[in-house]
């Protein structure tokens, strides 16, 4: 007996007799329609001025940015893959208006307009504010590493660069000498060869020498800027592919990366400020983060929560110059005084010492004073305990780590009163409760960017272009949040304006 399976509709192998809009095949509530309505709100007048009336007509920048944002929101980052989706995916076809920009057009647009992407990010924040999705009542700042468009295999240490430069220089000199000798000798030495073999080898080596010198010079300039007047360590590395990327990582997993910093609003997890840094840690990132948020929103937040990585003198000083009510963790992974007898504790941390501003000294967990020993012109201060106090202390084995047997030292700077004030503030239960919200504000955003959107590394190279791409990623995240809010009827889009439908 033949099983009666469903048959294909007659339209499958038959041309339609009347015109039909292919987008009617999409569900009426497909999100591409919402994205398209939002893209109409993006002001592209600034970038339009860069286009010429001469030559072939270009794709409108609003079309290009719409395609890129829609692609990034769906985890498609390669320009060839984006072009393919514009040819095959109805949602992409609607966003692209049935245009299909060549992958080179999309790639060049992404490379050449990093400033425009920063403006797009700002507009995404303004749209969210218009929709009532931000208040700047409480924001959280955090950073995460994103892989640069290079690898450890495309890098070389300073020692190796110098060695290669010397070897290549000697080889080129030898080839030039040999070539000169060949010019003077008869062709008998080459017989039926043309004599072009040596010049070709010379060309390859000269090209490589040029790359070696350029990388070496870039590394020297970088280290001079970071450590003026200091001798460059032989193990310092630089990437040939992206000379501005830096080695970052932890627990043995190191890659050339950039540190992406985001300031996230508590209300709906909208990113209200963002920037890219080459610093592997977060000790200098509060000031640029505040500047970015001020530039984007026109004001600073009321409250700000940050993890222990931001507990530096420079960050505390930047916050002290504002009216922001800041909360920074002061003891990440460190035992408190009640745990000092725990045999598993490997060492007594600096955070377990108490600073007394009026006496200008530290007091160790055992109650001994560490007096000021020296201070530098850069604000650095060194405090040290007395030998007699450390020699008879029960915590000596876990506190004094000097190989020469010196008593315990504490190195700090002139911002220690700010650190102590934050330590005292974070001891309060109310402060700890406010800080606990940080994990639900900013950390999920990086999770959504890396896991849901699938963005883990940059397609572009150089900090300016990478900064532009990170702005594109953050703008995409915000617009995706707005789309979700519209789908959930928290926000409505009427006559070109986003209107909040509920107050939270």
Blueprint of the fold:
Elements: H1 31-39, H2 45-48, H3 61-73, H4 79-88, H5 90-95, H6 103-112, H7 114-130, E1 138-147, E2 155-157, H8 158-184, H9 197-226, E3 237-239, E4 246-250, E5 253-265, E6 271-277, H10 286-297, E7 303-306, H11 313-320, E8 325-328, E9 354-356, E10 361-363, E11 369-375, E12 381-385, H12 387-391, H13 396-399, E13 409-412, H14 416-426, H15 429-436, H16 438-441, H17 443-452, H18 463-487, E14 491-494, E15 497-500
Parallel strand pairs: 1-7, 7-8
Antiparallel strand pairs: 1-5, 2-3, 4-5, 5-6, 9-10, 10-11, 11-12, 12-13, 14-15
Helix pairs in contact: 1-3, 1-18, 3-18, 4-6, 7-18, 8-9
Could you describe the 3D structure shown?
The chain has helices spanning about 30-40, 45-50, 60-75, 80-90, 90-95, 105-110, 115-130, 160-185, 195-225, 285-295, 315-320, 385-390, 395-400, 415-425, 430-435, 440, 445-450, 465-485; strands spanning about 140-145, 155, 235-240, 245-250, 255-265, 270-275, 305, 325-330, 355, 360-365, 370-375, 380-385, 410, 490-495, 495-500. With about 500 residues, the protein is an alpha+beta fold. It folds into four domains: about 30-135 and about 470-500, no CATH class; about 140-150 and about 250-330 and about 425-460, 2-Layer Sandwich (Nucleotidyltransferase, domain 5), CATH 3.30.420; about 150-240, no CATH class; about 345-425, no CATH class. The radius of gyration is 30 Å and the shape is globular. The N and C termini lie far apart (about 60 Å).
């Amino acid at each position: 007996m033949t099983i009666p399976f469903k048959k294909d509709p007659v339209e499958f192998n038959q041309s339609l007799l009347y015109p039909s809009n292919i987008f009617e095949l999409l569900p009426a509530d497909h999100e591409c329609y919402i994205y398209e309505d939002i893209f109409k709100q993006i002001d592209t007048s600034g970038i339009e001025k860069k286009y010429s009336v001469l030559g072939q007509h270009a794709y409108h920048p609003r079309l290009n940015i719409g395609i890129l944002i829609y692609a990034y929101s769906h985890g498609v980052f390669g320009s060839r893959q984006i072009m393919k989706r514009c040819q095959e995916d109805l949602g992409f076809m609607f966003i692209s208006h049935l245009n299909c920009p060549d992958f080179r057009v999309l790639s060049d647009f992404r490379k050449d307009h990093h400033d425009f992407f920063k403006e797009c990010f700002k507009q995404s924040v303004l749209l969210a504010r218009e929709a009532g999705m931000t208040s700047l009542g409480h924001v959280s700042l955090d950073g995460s590493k994103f892989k640069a468009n290079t690898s450890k295999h495309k890098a070389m240490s300073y020692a190796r660069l110098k060695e290669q430069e010397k070897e290549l220089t000697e080889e080129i000199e030898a080839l030039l000498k040999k070539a000169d000798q060949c010019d003077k000798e008869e062709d008998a030495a080459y017989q039926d060869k043309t004599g072009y073999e040596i010049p070709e080898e010379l060309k390859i080596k000269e090209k490589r020498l040029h790359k070696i010198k350029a990388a070496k010079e870039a590394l020297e300039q970088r280290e001079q800027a970071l450590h003026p007047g200091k001798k460059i360590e032989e193990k310092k590395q630089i990437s040939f592919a992206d000379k501005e990327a830096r080695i970052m990582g932890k627990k043995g997993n190191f890659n050339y990366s950039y540190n992406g910093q985001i300031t996230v609003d508590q209300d709906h997890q909208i990113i209200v400020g963002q920037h890219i840094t080459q610093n592997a840690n977060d000790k200098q990132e509060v000031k640029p983060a505040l500047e970015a948020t001020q530039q984007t929103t026109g004001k600073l937040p009321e409250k700000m929560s940050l993890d222990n990585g931001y507990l530096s003198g420079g960050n505390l000083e930047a916050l002290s110059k504002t009216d922001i009510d800041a909360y920074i963790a002061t003891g990440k992974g460190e035992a408190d005084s009640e745990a000092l007898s725990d045999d598993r504790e490997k060492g007594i941390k600096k955070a377990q010492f108490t600073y007394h501003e009026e006496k200008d000294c530290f007091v160790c967990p055992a109650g001994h004073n560490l007096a000021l020993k020296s201070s530098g012109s850069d604000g650095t201060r060194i405090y040290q305990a007395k030998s007699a106090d450390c020699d008879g202390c029960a915590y000596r084995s876990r506190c004094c780590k000097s190989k020469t047997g010196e008593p315990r030292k504490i190195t700090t700077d002139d911002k220690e009163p700010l650190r102590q004030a934050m330590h005292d503030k974070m001891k309060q239960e109310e402060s700890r409760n406010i800080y606990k919200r940080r994990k639900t504000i900013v950390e999920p955003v990086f999770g959504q960017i890396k896991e849901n959107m699938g963005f883990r590394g940059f397609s572009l190279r150089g900090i300016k272009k990478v900064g532009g791409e990170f702005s594109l990623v953050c703008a995409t995240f915000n617009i995706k949040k707005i789309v979700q809010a519209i789908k959930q009827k928290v926000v409505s889009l009427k006559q070109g304006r986003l209107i909040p439908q509920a107050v939270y």
